[in-house]
Amino acid sequence: MSESTSALDGAQLHTELDTIFNEVIDQLSDLVAIPSVAWPSFDPANVRASADAVAGLARSLGLDVDILSAAQQDGTEGFPAVVASVPAPVGAQTVLLYAHHDVQPPGKPEAWDTEPFVATRVGDRLYGRGAADDKAGIMVHLTALRLLADRLGVGVTLFIEGEEEAGSPSFRNFLETYQDRLAADVIVVADSGNWAAGTPALTTSLRGMCAIEFEVSTLDHAVHSGMYGGVVPDAMLAMTQVLASVHDENGSVAVSGLKSQTVSEIDYEEPTIRADSGVLDSTSLIGSGSLASRLWTQPSITVIGLDIPDVDVSSNTLQSSLKAKLSIRLAPGDTPDNAVKAVEQHLRDNLPFGATLTIGDTEGGSPWQADLNDPVVQTARRALTEAWGQESVTMGIGGSIPFIADLLEVFPQASILVTGVEDPDARAHSANESLYLPDFKAAIVAEALLLQSLAAT
């Protein structure tokens, strides 16, 4: 690849993409076929095979490629990542293109309509684990570079992580270990989605997250519910009351001290939320404010774990202690440390019957808010609009990408763009994950347009 001033417009790029698109789908299908789950209970050789496959595709484009790893927090070696690069022409910017080649476990086979690790095309969708999240992101990067070929006028570093779905345990150490290799002026994170199929979006806010484990105790040992029920408070009674206190009567978070925002550029329609989430017709939605703000810029708290006897093995016993785990999503502007302190104080203030509270493990990742006045953000929006032929929007994500905060801390001067190929029906992490192919094509063209525009500046 070498610098050239011959730029193509969106229509020309779409035409060139059409000539190679079947080959691109074949390459994506080959990646989907590798069950690259980076969880301890799965074969790590598959993750290595996935890294090798991505490295091979990058080498075929003439990139300088390495497969690298770094130690996780516990000292064990992390899963392999692919780092490939094209040096920047003199005076040009360098762009870091991020995606990840590991995937979620497939889950129950009977929940799938197709084989999870066999890419299956049905109409305008390609089904398979990783087809959207995030092996499509890899192919967006590689195919955009292929389209530009000798027209590429920026430096590019491809960073394809191998353990994102496992929580990126070596990510921060990886950034610090290979900081010189990864340094860039612009970082494109292709691991998000679009507003709807056919409507492009740039993700400009992400909620942060933290998790808190805690234990509530009322007795020094379990006792017979018939002998002492009605006088002695059991741990379940105390636990249910303290858990109920974290929300108000309409389901909004009732923990003081958590940050919240209520403004959003666009909003969801309630039928869309109901259809996408599968909420029952008889179930009302919770919270207040616009639906988008409830999902993107307000905090939420979910009980994701509760250690109690299963119904099948339950006995007539007052439980002496119980453990629970809360998942807290944080609005942009908040921090995990602040949220942990606020929730812990709320639990202590609302613990009934003089019960004892013990705080266990905590974890967290920071929220993120893009600078909407950054010229790179405006350039990206124009590229999306041209590629789709549909005005792009900015949107938030209710979920978290905690490593964005690490990228900002290690590369504070870089502009960060969060893009992606998923749509509301992609079902990432679920059975029947799929990629909407028209949006996949548009995403490739949009990234090529973005790289050309950055070369021009």
Molecular structure report:
- A 6-stranded mixed β-sheet has the order 1-2-6-3-7-17.
- The relative contact order is 0.19.
- A hairpin with a 2-residue loop joins strand 4 and strand 5.
- The protein starts with 9 loop residues before the first helix and ends with a helix.
- It has about 450 residues and is α+β, with helices and mostly antiparallel strands.
- The protein is built from 13 helices and 18 strands.
- It has 2 domains: about 290 residues, Zn peptidases (Aminopeptidase), CATH 3.40.630; about 120 residues, Alpha-Beta Plaits (2-Layer Sandwich), CATH 3.30.70.
Q: What are its keywords?
A:
4-stranded antiparallel β-sheet; Aminopeptidase; alpha+beta; Alpha-Beta Plaits; 18 strands; 457 residues; 6-stranded mixed β-sheet; 23% strand
Write down the CATH topology of the largest domain: Aminopeptidase
Question: What is the overall silhouette?
Answer: elongated
CA gyration radius, whole angstroms: 24 Å
Helix content: 25-40%
DSSP strand tally? 18
* CATH secondary-structure class of the largest domain: Alpha Beta
Class per helix and strand makeup: alpha+beta
Overall mean pLDDT score? 95
How is the main sheet built? 6 strands, mixed
Helices, by number, come to 13
CATH architecture of the largest domain: 3-Layer(aba) Sandwich
Q: β content, as a range?
A: 15-25%
Strand order of the largest sheet: 1-2-6-3-7-17
Ends: how far apart?
A: 19 Å
